Amino acid sequence: MATLVEAANYLPCGDGCSALTDTASAFCFRQGDQILVGEGRSYLHEGKFSAVEELAGKQLQLRFNRRFLWIKPPDGPVMKIQRGSQFENFKDGGCVSAVHGPILAAAYAQKRPARVPADAFPMAGSGKDDLFLWYRCSLDSDKTTISCQRWYKNGDAYGKDWYCAQTMAGEQVGAVATLDPLLSRDGRLVLKSGAALRHDNRARTNDVLDRPGEACR
């Protein structure tokens, strides 16, 4: 038996989907100490997995191998879904880590591009064409901003991104070593505590602040 932690519908192709694209259903299960994620497709808007999505928090019969999960709802037939998912918006940290773990493992398994520094680390991408990116983040000298240089997986430069050195709750962050790559993704940095950093939305031109002295926000 396993507990269905979360379930959600999403468009795997994001903004690039056509109007006729069917959604995928992503699932996250907890079985003992193990977290498993998977997803299935409902074609022609048949809502094949809608009954399962309503069972979040409940226990279901579950078996699996390296490629598939078989789900048995209390009052329905066994359903087979693909093991693994690229759904980025699970709320549970364990579910997010289960999504990102295979992505980061694949990144470390490949040869690091020569243009990517040795201290850069892989991070899950946006869920579109960039499965993962290389990141190198550092705390700026003013101690209020975290700057992240990014590279595509082939080593091409992707530009910088910035975050305030504080969480969404306003707590100050003193070191980038507390970042958790398993919980983070491009555009969303999360600490090992589970707290997300505030994205720095100040305007810049050629990586220089348009209004120097403006507080990070």
Instruction: Provide the low-confidence segments as ranges.
Output: none
* Number of helical elements: 2
Number of strands: 13
Query: What order do the SSEs take from the amino end to the carboxyl end, as H and E?
Result: EEEHEEEHEEEEEEE
Provide the gyration radius in Å: 20 Å
The profile of the biggest β sheet is: 6 strands, antiparallel, barrel
**Mean pLDDT reading:** 87
Distance between the termini: 45 Å
Strand content: 35-45%
Helical/strand content category: mainly beta
Strand order of the largest sheet: 1-2-3-6-5-4
Percent in helix: under 10%
Q: How would you describe the shape?
A: elongated
Can you walk me through this structure?
There is one protein chain. With 217 residues, the chain is mainly β. Helix content is 10%, strand content 36%. The strands form 3 sheets. A 6-stranded antiparallel beta barrel has the order 1-2-3-6-5-4. The protein has a 5-stranded antiparallel beta sheet with strand order 7-8-9-10-11.
Concise overview:
By secondary structure, the chain is mainly β.
Sum up the structure in keywords:
36% strand, 13 strands, 217 residues, mainly beta
Reconstruct the topology from this structure.
Layout: E1 2-10, E2 24-31, E3 34-41, H1 50-53, E4 59-64, E5 68-72, E6 79-83, H2 93-109, E7 121-124, E8 132-139, E9 145-152, E10 157-167, E11 197-199, E12 204-205, E13 208-209
Antiparallel strand pairs: 1-2, 1-4, 2-3, 3-6, 4-5, 5-6, 7-8, 8-9, 9-10, 10-11, 12-13
